[in-house]
Write a structure and sequence with these properties.
This protein is mostly helical and 227 residues long. It has 9 helices and no strands. The chain starts with 17 loop residues before the first helix and ends with a helix.
């Protein structure tokens, strides 16, 4: 899964307030040429609506491919090119390999959190109430930590599509760049999660805006942190 010709990339440290700047850049990119992104986002939401009840593992898979396509769109928009399905970005085998890896990682997350939750439920049934409550908090903390760990993969799709690097290296660089820039990363992760939650209140229609804004923010962050 490694590319044969991989460029040398350096991880840069961004100022603490850059997380907000990346989100602002994502909003600016969306405003510049929002129609294809809205269509792409609506198409993804329809696919998720059709397949989520039967195969939830497709959610992170399709989300990863979506991030890669939007990264290609951002590059094309900056160059004034016409966007046609990411000019084949969705056919990139490395992007799909990355998506499968992320999907398997997400499945492992669900299994881990589910096992912890089952343990907490059993302890809550057969132990004192305060022990059950403590395990519930442990379950919530574990879920939060695993979500943050998966969130460090947010830069990988742009690296695979735009930098033409291998899947394993892209994952490593994404995690390393996120950990080297914890405050900007957490800013995007927390505000992004809030944006997605608020968007769902409008029957999910707000996701047509929130999703591309966050994807463009990820592409902007990848361009800045890894050069």
């Amino acid at each position: 899964m490694q590319a044969s010709d991989t460029p040398t990339l350096t991880i840069h440290q961004a100022p603490h307030g850059r997380g907000l700047a990346w989100l602002a850049a994502g909003w600016s990119m969306f405003q510049r040429r929002w129609q294809p992104l809205a269509v792409l986002s609506a198409g993804l939401l329809i696919l998720l609506w059709l397949f989520i009840p039967r195969a939830s593992i497709l959610v992170p898979v399709l989300a990863t491919v979506y991030l890669g396509i939007v990264a290609a769109w951002c590059r094309m928009a900056r160059g004034g090119e016409v966007f046609l399905a990411g000019s084949g970005a969705w056919k990139n085998p490395a992007l799909w390999a990355l998506a499968i890896v992320v999907g398997l990682a997400s499945l492992a997350q669900l299994m881990l959190v589910g096992a912890i939750g089952a343990g907490a439920a059993m302890q809550g049934m057969y132990s004192a109430a305060h022990i059950g409550k403590g395990l519930f908090y442990a379950f919530a903390a574990a879920q939060l930590l695993v979500w943050l760990a998966l969130s460090t993969l947010w830069l990988a799709p742009a690296l695979v599509v735009e930098r033409k690097i291998g899947v394993v290296r892209a994952l490593g660089l994404s995690v390393a760049a996120s950990l080297r820039n914890p405050l900007p990363f957490l800013t995007v992760a927390v505000l992004g999660a809030l944006m997605l939650l608020l968007s769902m209140l409008l029957l999910g229609l707000g996701l047509i805006v929130a999703m591309p804004v966050l994807a463009c923010a990820a592409a902007s962050a990848a361009d800045e942190l890894l050069a």
